[in-house]
Amino acid sequence: MDTFNKRTALVVKILLWTAIAAFFIWGFSQGMFRQIYEQPGLFLELLGEHVLIIFASGFAAVLIAVPLGIFVTRPAFRRTEWFIVTVANLGQTIPSLAVLALAMGVLGIGVEAAILALFVYSLLPILQNTIAGLDSVDENTKDAARGMGLTNLQILWKVELPNAVVSIIAGIRTALVINIGTAALAYLVGAGGLGVWIFTGIRLFDNSYLISGAVPVTLLAIAVDLLFRYLERVLTPKGLILAREANEA
User: Where is the chain membrane-spanning (predicted)?
Assistant: First the structure.
């Protein structure tokens, strides 16, 4: 059964990459990507703006959401969880365009407004995954650590966070991938990015602009997703990997 599943997964991957390669060959033959190779300097500038918006907002969200997740999972502050999660949830319930408009009203037109909007949009997935990861740590494991004489702070750093790191990184990965697509809307508040070509293509009915902006956004999302999946595997404690493999066996 495992061999069948592996073969099926391999066939799906081959078909997927074949379809992607065929799309790029077709696109280049039709001149769909001509904006990239005709204006490489502008492309790199727009890509740099897009990446700056994504990672600046994501980094700020990590600095706020992860400590908040740790804070609300401490027994003394557990009652604050519902309030903090509800406030963070506002960033997801409000439409992204509305969040951008509100950020523009606070900071004006420019990159700062886009970063603020995507920061608000990133908080909830990182916060929820941090809480879920810390809550998933086995109480018996923490009791054993206390029995060994570890303080609460040492248990947090040496037991809880290493066991929760997969869930936390998954939340960061989700937030960044969502933001890569949403950042295209930053063009509407004068923040640049690849949304410039996407909306230019829509306005001019020019597929070369549209695809030259949309495809790099898609590839960037795939690259970030793969990068953070790799980080999950690297940062997962070896003991957890061995335990999972033993349970699967």
Answer: 12-33, 53-77, 97-124, 184-202, 208-228
Cα–Cα dist 114/111, whole Å:
5
Q: Does domain 39-248 have CATH number 1.10.3720.10?
A: yes
Amino acid identity of 187?
Y
Instruction: Please provide the DSSP assignment of 193-209 as one string.
Output: STHHHHHHHHHHT-HHH
Alpha-carbon distances of 197 from 5, 57, 115, 194, 207, rounded to whole Å: 41, 22, 19, 6, 10
Region of 84 please: left (phi>0), alpha (psi -120 to 50) or beta: alpha
Residues 127 and 84: beta-carbon distance below 8 Å: yes
Q: In the chain, where are the structural domains located? A: 1-30, 39-248
| Cα 44 to the center of its chain, rounded Å | 22
Separation between Cα atoms, residue 189 and residue 211, nearest integer Å: 21
State how far the alpha carbon of 204 is from the alpha carbons of 130, 148, 238, in Å: 44, 68, 54
What type of residue is 18? T
Q: pLDDT class for 101, splitting at 50, 70, 90?
A: confident
> Nearest-CA neighbor of 80 among 68, 92, 90, 91?
68
